[in-house]
Amino acid sequence: MRIEDVSDRLVRNSQGIYVGPRVGDVSYSQTGHADCFQVEDRSFWFRHRNDCIAALVTRFPYTGTLLDIGGGNGYVSQRLIALGGDVVLIEPGPMGALNARKQRGIDNVACALLEDAGFKPGTFGAIGMFDVIEHIEDDRGFLDQIAPLLAADGRLYLTVPCHTWLWSGADVSAGHFRRHTRRSLQALLSERFVIDYISYFFQPLVLPQWLLRALPYRLGRGRDSVLSTAAEHGTSEGLMVRVLERLLRPELQKVMRGETIRFGASALVAARLKPRSQSSGT
User: Fold this and answer.
1) Whole-angstrom distance between the N-terminal and C-terminal Cα of the chain?
2) pTM, full prediction
3) Residue 282 predicted with pLDDT over 50
4) Which domains are seen in the chain, by residue range?
């Protein structure tokens, strides 16, 4: 797919990035993309999330083009393209869009707010929002906005952080409005989508996140936590990282088989658009 064929508002600039009429203003750390880009390729967390997303998309495939909303530096899009998928990445942050285009070599990158992109209805076979929807205050309204962009039976893929009691300074720094549960995700999606798969993952990280982030935050400490650190992402590949990766491996195998994980620090969702006549609000 060429962006020119599905939008008459986005124009490709000299850097090969499609740009909208205004700079994006979203609830996200000002240095978030640069911070993440420094750790993504060596992070056990990003690696495991990518493996689980790839397994999810393989088990619950889409046809056509996937729109990666808030695709950041292009870490997920790059993996989906390697799987043979056609992907358009839209990212309102200029640094993320630049990294996706220049550093990760993704061809169809738009630096714009979704409402400014002017994508034609029914354009996409799937939409991915990977740790994105928690940054959107009116998440239900946003789902109403994206649903018309999907073709009939189009797919929606999500990852989100979970459990309010794991809230910490890292959530504040990241610009989160909430953390989810299976029940809250089901309530959020039920009007527009049929959920085919929903599961927790990152189970081994629940206790460390509680002890090292959430509990200190509740005690008034760690209120100025940064979004990500190399140490937290295990970029040194030390013994603890190898232990965590071994503990996480069964999660990937369960996602590959379509089995669910009953507890975890994040959630993973594959859903599909309800027929227009069954969606409330249409």
Assistant:
1) 28
2) 0.91
3) no
4) 3-274 (3.40.50.150)
